[in-house]
Sequence to fold (388 residues):
Amino acid sequence: MNGKDLVFLDNAASTQKPKSVLERINNFYSSQYANIHRSAYTLAENATQEYENTRKKVQNFINANDVNEIIFTKGTTDSLNLLSYSLGKYMIKEGDEIVISAMEHHANIVPWQIICEDKKAKLKVIPINSNGELILDNINEIITEKTKIVSIVHISNSLGTINPIKEIIELAHSQGAYVIIDAAQSIQHKKIDVQELDCDFFVFSAHKLYGPTGVGVIYGKKELLEKMPPYQTGGEMIAKVTFEKTTFNVLPYKFEAGTPNIAGVIGFGAAIDYISKIGIDVIDKVESELLDYAHQKLTQIEGLRVIGTAKNKASVLSFLIDGIHPTDLGTMANAYGIAMRVGHHCTQPLMDFFEIPGTCRASFAFYNTKEEIDILFDALNRIKKLLG
Ligand code: PLP
Fold:
């Protein structure tokens, strides 16, 4: 990359794809391709089987109780839009309250703003401290009997903070609210057991978990999904259509209108196999070591300020260097072959809280190395000499 070996440190945005995922997609399109469901021929039956196998893999991966609690979407954003629309229609009334946090991704802010506006409900925000940790001291004033939904990020994409979601889930349930966990940044780092967490909904994207783009997941408790109205309508999600009335399909198909991303879902199955073989615990351990190393190394640079210094963090390191705009830092780092994200990371209110335009973000996956962090360290020192 630009005459150097690529150092890919943008894994929070999306991960690179293992060969097994690419080969699975290629094989499927090359020799097994057909549309799924509703067919009498073997090619389509096999494709359906493969698609549904991924649903089982996802069920096992997050320990859902029932395979029909797994709904395929286009990604986390799509999952959150589905939930806000459907739950909004099903249960939000004037005067109700929805709670999010100050460190949410725009995908977990904007859909709720729209529902609140439509329904004359109120959006409340759990504040954070200067380390980028949730302030839960007055949580009983934020999550109350008026709260109907708490939608909260598990791990912050901008700060790396790991939130105490188990505690928040218990608190919300004690007030009768449903809880949605935005796991876009946790599914690839942490072992997840949705039954143990007892969350009502849990959403994530395949592309951050070494799978293809255009595929996401909603886990939802069956008894809730059954009561919720469909989001998109059309083929597949129906039981019977007449011009007078339509009845809807059973779970999970009620929420999967139209031809889905069949090859993407099948490729995602290969990604889950790949991750399961390595072991998420192993991945977590390697990434924690990388984060510690990067933190210890980069903080040696004078004038470097880490944004997000929570006690409990995943492998995301956001930083600024005094006197250098983050965009200049990222652009210059690119000349050294380093791929890092710069900007507000779709968390503008969080940037406003820290009174900064954005950050430079290095995010690590288990395939990164300490040598790559050394390259980043050297590059930042050179950039600092040039621009600082
Ligand atoms: N939530 C968080 C915490 C994220 O980090 C992201 C993406 O970066 C999203 C939601 C949206 O995910 P997607 O773009 O895959 O829909």
Observations:
- Residues 19 and 271 are 9 Å apart (CA to CA).
- The pocket of pyridoxal-5'-phosphate is lined by residues 75-77, 105, 107-108, 153, 157, 182, 184-185, 205 (CB under 6 Å).
